[in-house]
Design brief:
Blueprint: E1 25-27, H1 31-41, H2 49-69, E2 72-78, E3 89-95, E4 101-107, H3 111-124, E5 130-141, E6 147-156, E7 165-169, E8 172-173, H4 177-188, E9 196-204, H5 206-215, E10 220-226, H6 233-236, H7 263-268
Parallel strand pairs: 1-10, 4-5, 4-7, 7-9, 8-9, 9-10
Antiparallel strand pairs: 2-3, 5-6
Length: 272
Amino acid sequence: MAKDIQHQNLNFHANEMSHHYGKNVHLVSSPLMLSLLAKLGSPDTHQPQINELVSMLYAYLMDNVIDSLFPKKSTSIETRMKATHAEAVYEGQIINPETPVVSVDLARAGTFPSHLCYNKLNYLMNPELVRQDHFYVARVSDEKGQVTGVNVSGSKIGGAVEKAIVLFPDPMGATGGTIVQAHDHYLNEVGGKPLMMIAMHLIITPEYLEKVTKACPNLHIFALRLDRGLSSQDVLNSEPGKNWKQEKGLSPIQYIVPGAGGLGEILNNSYC
């Protein structure tokens, strides 16, 4: 049966911001997502709108991650029209459903985003190769509110990650401590060598990128928005990363500006 050339070597080009942070940093450029993200961060937005907006944002982010990085395979799939037309067969590339994928719940801000990714992957991939792990980690601050490290209070990890794609869907990439801790744990403490590891954020800061790109050079980082709102106007007028050392997105107590105002608390309606 004849094959249509357009489906044989799919090549997806993500719409990303130009920047100087390195090839593994993906700043997704979408007016629609920035509009929804601005609404999410507004003080006038509350539950249940919070969860609905996060669902829409992570659905788009997951689509970009899958199209950009997930392995593909060639296949032949009959359609319903095969009953009347012998030619009614799709022959071309699809996402390889036999790729193992692990979505890591970085409790607590990452719990809902991880569930969203896990649920979507179960429709796309072989569900027997998709799992969700749980990693209980929180920032540790001193009496002045300065972040001094991260505290891992426990985990529930379902096995090795040999040749698996490991996802870290964590909405806010502020200091980078949580992602570095989780990345290193999966790289050094969990059995197997993963195919790749991907951090998925709604908002990140230049400080986050400085820490994470140095500590985890092979980690792919996807984000819908880079916040550097405490930088000078001259820096804000420059392309992201061009004046990296002068860029600033963290408040004195390491919250993101403009940011979204403590999304872990807001998602769970829990402020303790």
